[in-house]
Amino acid sequence: MAQVPQRFFDALAVRTWCGLSLRALGRAREEIDAINVYPVADGDTGTNLYLTVESAAAAVEAVFAAHETGAAGSDGPSLTDAVGAMAHGALIGARGNSGTILAQLLRGLAQVLTERGETAHTDGPGLRLALRHAAASAREAVAHPVEGTVLTVASAAADAADGVRGDCAQVARAAYEGALAALAATPGQLPVLERAGVVDAGGRGLVAVLAALVETFTGRAPEPVAVPHARPDGGGADLAGERTAGERTAGERAAGECVPGEGTGVAHGPAFEVIYLLEAEDTAVARLRRRLDALGDSLVVVGGDGLWNVHVHVDDAGAAVEAGVEAGRPHRIRITHFGQGDVHTTGAERPPRERTRRAVVAVVPGEGLAALYGEAGATTLLARPGEPPASGELVQAVRRAHAREVVLLPNDAELRHTAAAAAEQARAEGVRVALIPTRSAVQGIAALAVHESERRFDEDVVAMTSAAGATRHAEVTVAERRSWTTAGICQAGDVLGLIDGDVAVIGADVSEVAATVLDRMLSAGGELVTLVVGDGAPPSVADRLEARVREAYLAVDTVVHRGGRQGALLLVGVE
Fold it and tell me: What is the DSSP string of 140-156?
């Protein structure tokens, strides 16, 4: 579906921005992780930013869902509802130094917009004020602001926006261009970046978020960012080198260097990162800031109205948590030893039970498919219609599988980046994870059919990837709203046939659309047709399609599965 530009900054624009930001950070996550050398070269800034925005986007979607299921005649959430949810979601889901700062940027932006009352939208001047306050509040949240970081990029974005007297699209583009120029200058402001030949990772993430803001108001994303990276001779930044930033790890760039704040954090800085949510009064938080500032560095405390997100790097993790206990009620405590994964504070360790050798973890859209995958030995995560799972749910599913090696099948193109972030988290916990980018549950069925746990892991992954890639996929569904599609404009209630993710057929009858889709898929050949029928499909659709295959396509077999409540009326796979 094409992106429809938003004219004003309203609740729908907030929703669109969150979705586009999540997609942009998903695409850039590995690249941002790879250039992460400050304040600690732990290679997780991109992942942390993604998880922070994922939480913000989920909170906004929950607000929209509540209005859609509420009383008839609801006009949907207000701008105040949407930006408030975005800020709160980012606050409770903030991860890492940059994620915590991004949460405060979003909170600062929301504070200006909510002060305007229950207005339906804001315009260019309002967006300018919000960006200025966002940059200022983020800087205030950091105990010792450092130039050449995401704070510098945020300030530059606000400065550039201040000079524009136009609509939201013009303000957003000016902010993006100002941020992009500031990002390119970060190596000259921070010696650790200059030595590594990279730009600031957190700033790079903010540029991606601002690019999504431009796309929200213009319908088109700016050109991809060319990120400076180290030249092969190790001398300074190079915009036209042969390798991208994502192709050199932070460890490769920092090899042989002894830079304060780099490396594992054990030899050159505090050993632990401590993050927790804190329920406390403002006065107690002021005392907490002073206490934590004396204990360590990279201190960021964001939030307000009784709920705060605390981030600090320390050598004494226990003291940092105790300080939180004295200030209020800390929860969601997360302690990470740089280079050694998570340290859980749940009391005495129990001897872990032995892990199985290998498992398959799959996201499935309906109860029927969950049973089918389960019978084949997979650990499943049920994706409810309209509610895609978050990366945290995928991580929990990987933990449930309790295996040393895991093959992850997202079975949805929109879940690719979410699954990649989950895989990264699972790897940090010592699990070997391979992500096969299945775009549909029928591709997952094909992959699972050739899975053999006794094979070498790499061979098994190659075989499953090949089987999934050889399976074309389609679905038949009903349009929820009027939209632009690759097959023309559809109206709410139209039956859509999507082939490999693109709308190929628009019609009024489910069986006719399904038959057209199947004919188009089989025109390129095929040996096996897999049909997964949802509860909402006509009872006769599977029989009609099976008969069509028997009559028109010799030597093609058909397999039918009942998917239950799976969102789409019909899923089709052709191997």
Answer: HHBSS--TTSHHHHHHH
